Amino acid sequence: MSYSTLRYDVADNILTLTLSRPDHLNAFTVEMADELIEAFNRASDDDEVRAVVVTGEGRAFCAGMDLSASGNVFGLNESLKPTMDDMENRLEDPEIIAGVRDTGGRVTLAIYDCNKPVIAAINGAAVGIGATMTCAMDIRLASEHARIGFVFNKIGITPEACSSWFLPRIVGISQALEWVYSGEILKPEQALAGRFVTAVVPADQLLEEAYKIARRIAQHSPVAIAMTRQMMYRCSAQAHPLEAHKVDSLAIYYASQTSGKEGVQSFLEKRAPVFKDRTSTDMPAFYPWW
Fold first, then answer.
1. Secondary structure of 224-244 in the HEC alphabet?
2. Which one-letter DSSP state was computed for residue 16?
């Protein structure tokens, strides 16, 4: 499939997903949302992809929603009067999807459901949805040119893209509230101090640093990695560790009979493991368990 707002490039089991509207600082549109959802679903099903690196073309990562669009800039249908009952019972209704549901949230839910690890290489401005979409990514690196802003309250709107779920889990509730209340544009050092990014990297080394992490991940069992990603996100949100224990038990039970055998044998033989399992065919029967 070809994309108008993205580039989808796979090499050495790593997908580089590049936001590609450089003349508009990669500003987010409804079309970009739809293409990102398709791309993450595609990556999840693609056995050639073992890790995903997301970056922006040109000077920006993503400068937020494209506010130049006519009408409702968020692509929403102002003639509707949606309720929480609609959210509970009509969430997949085409009218609700197209006219009510937050496009950024639909993207972050696609990232959340993806069974491949996702690394953000934040090369420049990441503002609004440009910041919140990265909250659903597993690891975030920033260049010294990055500027990150949760600017919603500044323009009279609320956080979106499920960031009220993701951001406090990453940086803590107090830090999340301070950043969102103030709408301050964060320098990369501030994002690092708040533990939103794991490293600040010179711009010319950013992608290579992201690829180093991706290559380490790509060496491992893709099934074990896919299971680990979903276990961490879903089990950490449960009310009691017993719920994690139930999933852990089944996950270990089945992994010990498949990729675990190769892992143990390679350890005993002092060699690198050769994992041949595939997420398309070899996920345990209880997956997805939620």
1. HHHHHHHHHHHHCCCCCHHHH
2. E
Residue 266 φ then ψ, to 5°:
-65, -35
Q: Are 135 and 170 in contact (CB under 8 A)?
A: yes
- As a whole number of angstroms, the distance between CA 60 and CA 20 comes to 10
Amino acid present at 100: V
Residue pair 112/233 in contact (Cβ under 8 Å)? The answer is: yes
The Cα 17–Cα 43 span in angstroms is 10
d(CA 150, CA 255) in angstroms, rounded, equals 40
Q: Are 171 and 196 in contact (CB under 8 A)?
A: yes
* SS3 (DSSP) at 141: strand
**Three-state DSSP class for residue 222:** helix
CA quadruple 267, 269, 272, 278: dihedral positive or negative?
Answer: negative
Condensed to tens digits (0 to 9), the pLDDT of residues 200-237 reads 999 999 999 999 999 999 999 999 999 999 999 999 99
Among 52, 53, 3, 59, residue whose Cα is nearest residue 27: 59
Does pLDDT of 69 surpass 90? no
| Paired strand residues for 139 | 119
Q: Any idea what the Cα angle at residue 216 is, between residues 224 and 119, rounded to 5°?
A: 85
Average pLDDT for the chain? 96
Smallest CA-to-CA distance from 197 within 179, 221, 220, 215 is with 179
Query: Distance between CA atoms of 183 and 170, rounded to whole angstroms?
Result: 17
Alpha helix locations (H) across 30-102? Answer: 30-45, 84-89, 94-99
Look at the pTM and tell me if it is higher than 0.90. Answer: yes
- The phi, psi pair for 15, rounded to 5°, reads -90, 125
Q: How far apart are CA 92 and CA 273, in angstroms?
A: 43
Buried b (16+ CB within 10 A) or exposed e, 203-227: eeebbebbbebbeebbebbbbbbbb
